[in-house]
Amino acid sequence: MYWSDIGIVLGWRNFGECRRILTVLTQQYGVQRGILYGVSQTLLPGWVLNLRWKGGSETNLGTWRVDGALSLGMESFGHPLSFVLLTSMCQLCTYGLPIQIPCLGIYQAFLASVSLLSESKGLRAYLLFEAHMLCYLGYQDREIHHFIKNWQNPKAMCVHKQWLHQDYIWKRVGKEWNGWQEMKERAYHKIFDSPDWR
Q1: Which residue in 118, 115, 141, 117 sits closest to 127, CA to CA?
Q2: Average pLDDT of the chain to the nearest whole number
Q3: What are the residue boundaries of the DNA replication/recombination mediator RecO N-terminal domain, all occurrences included (predicted)?
């Protein structure tokens, strides 16, 4: 089996000396994993890649070939908080989305949010992505829908209140994937406990 698509780098881990298992969020096929040969290629979370996947069947761990890369969200790497939010988005996709299920809405929400992370509305953009994830997973309420509609209006929604509300839903759902909740808690203290926030 063979296909090509555009994918967002979510993460990778070493797999032997010259291989990595690369996890991406693709436009048409959802979250996919595959082996990428050669460790010299630079990959960063949030990068958008032109990919080709080849495998025996959809259920096998296939191989990737990268035909090009676009470094989307590079501004985030210069801002520690933006980078934490980007990493949190990647982990949320990796552990929260089912493998090989198309989720174009989440793909589009990721691209829209990541491009704003280093701007003044970056925190709102991150919460917007989280709200889309909650809706996709079936955990939405009136406040989530209201935030999605009015996320750009600071008078309509308090960021701190929305953060706490979404955090409450995640904890109620019991989603504590591989340290994601701890990372989010550290980001919370960095943002809301700082004197700059007040």
Answers
A1: 117
A2: 86
A3: 1-63
